Amino acid sequence: MSRKLASALPAHRVEIRLAGSGGQGIILAGLVLAEAAGVYEGRKAAMVQSYGPEARGGASKAEIIISDSHIDYPLCTRVDVLLAMTQEASDAYSWDLKPGARVLVDRDLVSHPPTSRAIALPFTATARSRLNSTVAANVVALGAIVEVTGLISRRCLDRALQARLPADARTLNKKAVSLGIKLAREYLRKEVAEEAVEPRTEDM
Questions:
Q1: Where are the beta strands (DSSP E) in the chain?
Q2: What's the number of CA atoms in the CB half-sphere (13 Å) around residue 175?
Q3: Which residues pair with 15 in a beta bridge?
Q4: What whole-number distance in Å separates Cα of residue 111 and Cα of residue 170?
Q5: What is the pLDDT of residue 8?
Q6: Quick one: CA dihedral 88, 91, 93, 94, positive or negative?
Q7: Is residue 159 part of a domain?
Q8: What is the CATH number of the domain that holds 187?
Q9: Under a CB-based contact definition with an 8 Å cutoff, are residues 156 and 36 in contact?
Q10: Most buried in the list 34, 56, 130, 170, measured by CB within 10 Å?
Q11: How many domains does the chain have?
């Protein structure tokens, strides 16, 4: 099976789960993604959130359904896209992945992804080194999700971020989205290059 993951998800109903810990902006990322799809892309979208009692460090999860038709059940049952920003989130929320689901993890915080096909990218480290702000890691991750899945356009994601976040954060978040897209694009380009040099079984 090809490891190229850049094609858009074709399903009329796509289930997305964003998971991490309190303080990583998981709920905000879910709201932005749902609004980008529902308000600016013109699709149906629903979001359900949950989080632990701790302000920081507790579990945090957002589930987003994006559909072309009415959404009668807003919870994920077979996850198409998983973002895990911590190892705990990866362990707790990866049990119902669809075969071939897109899985993105923070490379430095998730040492054992739920699948060998997970896209491991340095979301937090990139936000820290390039933006001097680890709180922007969630937006870096959103940029990567957009690039990997093709679910929504960059333009609609930018509009949703502008509407949801303070005006003085717009420049930072546009940079964060660009960084996420670049990280994913470079990863996928490398995957394609490695696949091209792998020997075919019939040649062995």
A1: 13-21, 44-51, 59-67, 79-84, 97-106, 119-121
A2: 14
A3: 65
A4: 32
A5: 55
A6: positive
A7: yes
A8: 3.40.920.10
A9: yes
A10: 34
A11: 1
> Could you give phi then psi for residue 164, rounded to 5 degrees?
-90, -30
Task: Tell which wins on pLDDT, 24 or 9.
Answer: 24
Residue in this structure with the two tokens 């899945």, named with its chain if needed = 149
For residue 137, the enclosing domain spans 13-195
DSSP state at residue 174: H
Helix (H, G, I), strand (E, B) or coil at 98: strand
User: Which residues are CB-neighbours of 20 under 8 A, at least 6 positions away?
Assistant: 26, 60, 83, 84, 85, 86, 89, 106, 138
Encode burial over 120-151: b for 16+ CB neighbours within 10 A, e otherwise: bbbbbbbbbeebebbbbbbbbbbbbbbbbbeb
Is 34 part of any domain?
Answer: yes
**β-strand partners of 37:** none
91 within some domain: yes
User: Is residue 1 domain-resident?
Assistant: no
Note the Cα 16 to chain centre separation in Å: 8
> Residue 4 — very low, low, confident or very high, per pLDDT cuts 50/70/90?
very low
Note the pTM of the prediction, 2 decimals. Answer: 0.88
DSSP-derived 3-state class of residue 108: coil
Tokens at residue 146, please? 């957009």
- pLDDT, one tens digit per residue, over 159-195 is 999 999 888 899 999 999 999 999 999 999 988 787 7
Residues 172 and 31: beta-carbon distance below 8 Å: no
